[in-house]
Amino acid sequence: MNPSDVLSALVSSKLRIALVGVLVVVGAVGGAFVLGILGVPSVAAVDNTFGDVTNETTEIETDLVVSNPNPVGIGLDGVSVNYTVSMNGIEMAQGGREGVSVGTGNSTLELETRLRNDGIPPWWVSHVRNGERTTLDIDATATSDRLGRGVDFSRSREIQTDLLGAFNSDETRPVNADSPFVSDPVLYVNETRGEWGTVSESETPIEMAFTVYNPNFEPYAVTEIGYDITMNGVAMGSGQTDEGYVIPSESTETVEFTTALQNRHLDDWWVTHLDEDVRGHQVTDLRIEFYAVIEFPTGEETTIPLDALTYEERIETDIFGEGDDVRNGTDSSGNGSDSDAGNETDGDSSDGDATDDGNQADDSDGGTTDGTDDGSDDGTENGTDDGSGDDDDGVLPV
């Protein structure tokens, strides 16, 4: 036999053997997936932070960690990941990616979604109605359509605030008229009380009560009490009482009235709350100023700023639980506990749609109602992604 024919036959045989070997390995791996011998990729963690904030939208940056328990990478077009962030059942953001390729171990997908700031008021309403408590839920799913199996991941965190607690006070404070016609103090406020009223979609009322003492020998008429409410300098509401009160001489009277935050201004406040350059990480300074119009026995009326009753309260939150490293001091209002859970499901996995009507979405390319984005700038770590899938943008209504 010709030596060249022998060499050709030998090489051809080795190529056939190598090809068969590759086919056997591929078949074995595919069969292992089908039989469940190899694991289905799952979501190991979802970490969110707030990004750029404009007057209209708030960016949510998400690191979604996909765990591949197998010794080989996976590049199946049928692998997809989806996640939903909601607060008190109101959808804040929804995102995902189709056609994910992951290496072994953990791979991090960087996703971006945008919530509409005009969705803030519905969340605020739910927060106040729920006793200033918000449950943050993060639900994610990694699904292999080819295998018909998916793994769910869920995480919950409770956020609490106390905006009015410090307003309840038994401290006695004098009210001075600074008028040549009367002697100061003209009145004393011995007690202040405040609680949330019945919140509506348009306003958040605060029911207030002042216990007022008149130390003088003549009765005084308080014809009007007015107020101005600001949050981080944003005007949230102003108004005055509809009726007057007579404070008998050397007697005590309880003055009751209602103030209100106008919910339409909450999206403007939200932008300031997330502005770390001004006050720090998610900080709000609430301020309520009062004035009174008092009619003296002479018939003269004087408008008196009630500076001693000015209420100031600092509110801090850490909505996504980014940790104490981004906060100064003790978290008295935004602390919460986290809980993670994961379980495997068969069939098509839900992408975690919200259960509330706060489902507006804003697409970074112009805005849609289904919350999708091209995701072309997303990346991976410890793995690869083909970038062919879409990112879903979402919404919010605190």
UniProtKB/TrEMBL annotation:
Q: Where is the composition biased (Low complexity)?
A: 329-340
Transmembrane segments annotated in the record for this chain: 17-40
Query: What InterPro entries would the database entry show?
Result: Ig-like_fold, LEA_2, WHy-dom
Q: Pinpoint the Water stress and hypersensitive response domain residues.
A: 43-160, 189-311
What Pfam families does the entry give?
LEA_2
Query: Residues annotated as region Disordered?
Result: 318-398
The alphabetized list of GO BP terms reads:
response to desiccation
Q: Does the keyword Transmembrane apply?
A: yes
Keywords assigned by UniProt? Answer: Membrane, Transmembrane, Transmembrane helix
Q: Where is the composition biased (Acidic residues)?
A: 341-398
The name on file for this protein is: Water stress and Hypersensitive response domain protein
User: What lineage is this protein's organism placed in?
Assistant: Archaea, Methanobacteriati, Methanobacteriota, Stenosarchaea group, Halobacteria
